[in-house]
Design goal:
Helices cover 75% and strands 0% of the residues. It has 459 residues and is an all-alpha fold. It has a single domain, classed as Hydantoin permease (Orthogonal Bundle), CATH 1.10.4160. The longest helix is centred in the last third of the chain and has 36 residues.
Length: 459
């Protein structure tokens, strides 16, 4: 097996690894995706199924990625080349590198909006009667504005990654992640004490199991899967910076717990806030956050500055969540160029960020700035949504499926379990994990892939 470069870096501590990995998993989808999907799928009953899906499908795949990374001390391409030399499995790593760059290209566009909205919230634009749809169009529908904020956010991302593992990613995540939780907890306290928050909390916390059907179960599997950033090699890359003394099993558990906690806390912010105004989330994704939620800011007491403070904190929260994820997206491809091609970290990160920025320009223009990009001919969706479908959904599902099959059947659960035990000789959940990664995870992911295709075909 080829050896890793001694200069590629390692985490300074187990805590640093956990915070960085949790930051990779925690993103915009936790803050707006989870509450929106929860609302559409039965409230609290969906939450119960989601938690089961995280434990039985998401966590085993995450541990598999960590194991592959630490065993090889390589990026995704190098990891599969090392474990299965001379085979086509290296393509799985290549798919992760490609997906990371492509997802970063449009993720930076949406994250750029959060930067603009921090300023808009601070300037008091979200007052009673404000046309929040027009405000959104002034950001996302203006070519110079959308591209400018896209560039600004990409620059923030590359500034962190260029510093390396310890001096860049680790140093910043030690600040960003505690800050994220502090902001989120402040927002939860404000939201649950709003007048009329009770019905929102009941909808979110009191399950009605009669609402669970096949669609709810599949939606929960999909949300659990995508919220953990699986299938694109980010966890393989971060796992490759672990030392052999770190405990893989507990580390994976902490990362999953932190990611899930953010999603659950986000629900405690969104549902009381919306029910406070007599509404339930109707629009999905950016529409729910940048249009619907902003229209409610002026109603948050004490007026007139209660909504301003809430708005600034909320969009700052979104920006931090987006940044910790975009760092890992850029790091996957950067690690490949540094490890396998001998490119300096500075040149690799700047070059890849520039490439992702250029690729992302059509996504920046796809929300009104260029009409045909807002509704692609023959496809019926905007360019950004199309890229998300291809790389943010299908590529990740296929990647995770192949990682599960590779770990469970090709490289083998025995080899993987030996790596888990290598630091202290223990693997408490070895039998359960072996069964899940070999059988339940691949089957569930295949069903999820079929469900996504069926939805795409109008089923």
């Amino acid at each position: 097996m080829e050896s890793a470069s001694p200069a590629r870096g390692q985490w300074g501590s187990k805590l640093a690894f956990i915070l960085a990995s949790a930051g990779s998993a925690i993103g915009l989808g936790n803050i707006w995706g989870f509450p929106t999907i929860t609302s559409a799928n039965g409230g609290a009953a969906f939450v119960v199924v989601y938690l089961l899906a995280v434990a039985l499908i998401g966590a085993p795949v995450m541990l598999a990625e960590f194991v592959i990374g630490r065993r090889t001390q390589r990026n995704p391409v190098g990891a599969f080349r090392a474990l299965a030399p001379g085979t086509a499995w290296v393509v799985v790593g290549g798919l992760g590198v490609l997906a990371g760059v492509m997802i970063l290209s449009f993720y930076s566009v949406i994250a750029g909006w959060t930067l603009a909205y921090i300023i808009k919230a601070a300037s008091g634009e979200f007052v009673a009667g404000a046309d929040t749809g027009a405000i959104f169009s002034s950001v996302a529908g203006s070519a110079p504005v959308a591209i400018g904020w896209h560039f600004a956010f990409m620059a923030l991302t590359v500034l962190v990654v260029i510093g390396g593992v310890k001096n860049g990613i680790e140093r910043w995540t030690k600040v960003l992640m505690p800050g994220l939780f502090a902001i989120l907890l402040l927002l939860v306290v404000r939201a649950v004490t709003l007048s009329g928050a009770g019905p929102g909390l009941e909808f979110y916390l009191r399950p009605d199991f009669s609402r669970i059907d096949g669609g709810v179960i599949l939606a929960a599997i999909g949300q659990a899967f995508f919220s953990l950033s699986l299938g694109m090699g980010a966890m393989i890359t971060y796992g490759s910076y672990m030392t052999k003394d770190d405990d893989l099993e507990t580390s994976a558990g902490w990362v999953v717990a932190l990611d899930t906690s953010v999603a659950l806390l986000a629900g405690l912010v969104i549902f009381p806030t919306l029910f406070h105004a007599g509404l339930e989330p109707g629009a999905g994704g950016p529409g729910m956050v940048f249009v619907v939620l902003t229209s409610l800011l002026s109603t948050i007491p004490p007026e007139p500055w209660g909504g301003t403070i809430f708005g600034v904190l909320f969009f700052l929260l979104l920006m931090v969540a987006a940044l910790t994820s975009s760092i890992s997206l850029l790091e996957v491809a950067t690690a490949w160029l540094v490890d396998d091609k001998g490119v300096s970290r500075k040149k690799a990160s700047i070059g890849l960020a520039a490439l992702a920025f250029v690729i992302g320009i059509p996504s920046a223009l796809a929300n009104g700035a260029v009409p045909w990009l807002s509704s692609l001919p023959g496809i019926g969706m905007d360019f950004l949504s199309f890229l998300f479908m291809i790389f943010g959904q299908y590529a990740l599902v296929v990647g995770a499926l192949l990682i599960s099959v590779f770990t469970g059947w090709v490289w083998g659960v025995k080899n993987a379990a030996d790596e888990v035990r290598s630091n202290d000789g223990k693997f408490s959940f070895e039998k359960a994990w072996s069964f899940l990664i070999r059988f339940l995870c691949p089957v569930a992911i295949v069903i999820l892939l079929g469900y996504l295709l069926w939805q795409q075909l109008g089923g």
